[in-house]
Design goal:
The chain is built from three helices and no strands. The chain is an all-alpha fold. It has one domain.
Amino acid sequence: MSFVFSHEPWAPSALACLYHTLVHEFGREKVDEAFNRHPT
């Protein structure tokens, strides 16, 4: 998550693709938990 937040701005479609790729690899629960833990 730190990579995503430290390399802004992202195109909306890029973030959607990144999210879906992470969910495919790690599962939605783990990905959502990681996003929710990260301070914005």
